[in-house]
Amino acid sequence: MDKQVPKNFIAEPYPYHYELELIVDSLTNLGSGICRATDGWVVMVPFVIPGERVRARIYRNHSNYSEADLVEVLDRSPDRVDPACRLFQTCGGCQYQHIEYGRQLEEKTARVVELMEKAGLGEHRVEPAVGSPQLYHYRSKITPHYERPARDGSQPIGFLQHGRRRTIVDVESCPIATQAINEVLPGARAEARESGGKKRRQRGGTLLLRHVLEGVVTDPKAVVSERVGGLTFQFRAGEFFQNNPYILPQMVDYVIGEAKSEGVQYLVDAYCGSGLFALSAASSFTQVAGVEVSDQAVLWAQANCRISRIENARFLIGKAEAIFKGLSFLPEETTVIIDPPRKGCDASFRDQLMGYRPARVVYVSCNPATQTRDVEEFLQSGYRIERIQPFDLFPHTRHIENVITLVGPEENGSV
């Protein structure tokens, strides 16, 4: 038994593989259950549902909590369902396949509420999360990984194992990827193994399978097309574009609806990428402008503008230190949409946005934790929250997209 104990294991407060019964209180934003032992000690257990009584086995102790594997569900939640994937709990891609979808939406909404409360913003109502109309086979892009190829091509090709930083689980098909991707995946895996067996590259690699109008594309440099609403967007297959086409039009319509307001006739789409929000909103504003620090993204946005024959939109390369330079829109007549990466808005951008002081800000985020951090600063500058609406772009995972609408001091009557 001693040989099985990890070298750096800390044996307090529990020995390695100690088992105990726990009641699940809530879920973390990473998807694990927060449980408390009889002495009040916190234990994190994955693949559980709040309210369940479970048996768990300790594998790591930290200074203020422990981590444990789920051994058995003793009292089962009525919202527990059978997962669709045989690799669930092994593959680290999904965290919630064991939870009925309506309950998933409740839990994801609760995570946003919790983050707002931690930021001291608990008085603001969070609307129930909008669910995806497609629960499985919705994801239009996957990127399976593999380590250094074996000579016989036997290395696993898939995703990281749950709870491991380097171990890859072999994934032959993925139930959250589109059917078209799963039809192409076996051939892509075989080609990677054959290539690896011949070349014996020193490092592994990543496959790309992106389901677009052209079909399933595997070349990250290929020019591909997506249709959202009545518009077509072109970009390179390896670049960012939202990966759930079933709910994306609904979220875009919501964001545009929140951007519109009496007296607002201009729109700025910061972090505009290939122009999704700017071009989708163009018919609702006198003029729109997209701003991006990436010159390549601006070129794609300009091309998409020409494809859709939109004449009241322009796209600017915004230098990091002067994002809004060159805009002639009166700020009191302008809404700014921001959709930053997971790290949120950097300090320079936040300072510049508060200096510009648009009438409204619609903040779209794939990471509500960094979003609430940024929103706190907006509130300190005189803005107020008007609405908070989560969207579930990735069913069966812990991820949630969140949209917060903020009203500027002039529009809300403040001085």
Itemize the secondary structure elements and their pairings.
Blueprint: E1 19-27, E2 33-36, E3 42-45, E4 53-61, E5 66-75, H1 101-118, E6 141-142, E7 145-146, E8 157-160, E9 168-170, H2 179-199, E10 205-206, E11 209-212, E12 215-217, E13 223-228, E14 231-236, H3 248-259, E15 266-270, H4 276-281, E16 287-292, H5 295-307, E17 313-317, E18 334-338, H6 347-356, E19 360-365, H7 368-380, E20 384-391, E21 401-407
Parallel strand pairs: 3-5, 15-16, 15-18, 16-17, 18-19
Antiparallel strand pairs: 1-2, 1-4, 2-3, 4-5, 6-11, 7-8, 7-10, 8-9, 11-12, 13-14, 19-21, 20-21
Short description:
With 415 residues, this protein is an alpha+beta fold.
What does this structure look like?
- This protein is α+β, with helices and mostly antiparallel strands and 415 residues long.
- The protein folds into three domains: 2-80, OB fold (Dihydrolipoamide Acetyltransferase, E2P) (Beta Barrel), CATH 2.40.50.140; 105-134 and 244-407, Rossmann fold (3-Layer(aba) Sandwich); 141-224, no CATH class.
- 22% of the residues lie in helices and 27% in strands.
- It contains seven helices and 21 strands.
- The strands form five sheets. Strands 17-16-15-18-19-21-20 form a seven-stranded mixed sheet, sandwiched between helices. It has a five-stranded mixed beta barrel with strand order 1-2-3-5-4. Strands 9-8-7-10 form a four-stranded antiparallel sheet, with no helix packed on it.
- Strand 15 (266-270), helix 4 and strand 16 (287-292) form a beta-alpha-beta unit.
- The radius of gyration is 24 Å and the shape is globular.
- The model has no long low-confidence stretch (mean pLDDT 92).
